[in-house]
Every structure is written in structure tokens, then in C-alpha cells.
Amino acid sequence: MLGYIVERYEVFHSLFLWGWVFYVVGTCIGVGVLITLDRDDPHKGQKQYYGILLIAALFIIGLIGTIFLPSPELVKGWLQ
Fold first, then answer.
1. What is the structure's pLDDT at 8?
2. Number of structural domains found in the chain
3. Could you report the per-residue pLDDT of 12-23, keeping only the tens digit for each?
4. Closest Cα to residue 69, out of 2, 17, 3?
5. Looking at beta carbons, which pairs linking 5-12 to residues 24 or more positions away fall under 8 Å?
6. Which of the listed residues 12, 30, 37, 68 has the most CB atoms within 10 Å of its CB?
């Protein structure tokens, strides 16, 4: 059972570390959306909102994954 918990935690931790990859990709997409906005676009405000929201959400995922989650080796030490 202990091995199963540690294995699942390692998967969970690696997914959050991949959050930084998602952040970089999301930032590129979000900045691309913000750059390509036309002045005459009737949905400009909504597109700006979603571009900024995408950047912020993916940044928070990456931040949580790298700062607040302990490493799998540390968790193994706690559980033994």
C-alpha cells in the first residue's frame, strides 16, 4: 500500500512540474491572442480577458507545482 501511495504521488508531482511547460505554452498562446487583436474587433475585451486569464491560470499551476509540493524523495522519507 505504501508503494502505491508513493507511486501515485510521484505521478501527481510530475504533473505539477509539467505545469511550467503548460505555463510557457499558455503564455505564448495568450500573448499571441493579445498581440493579434484588432482595434475594430467587437469582441476585443472578451479576447483580452481570456488571454490574460489563460496566462494567470497556468502560472498559478506552475507555481503550486514547484513551490508548495514537496519532492517525492521527501515524501518517501515521511512515509517510512
1. 74
2. 1
3. 777 676 767 777
4. 17
5. 5/79, 6/72, 6/75, 6/76, 6/79, 9/72, 9/75, 10/72, 12/69
6. 30
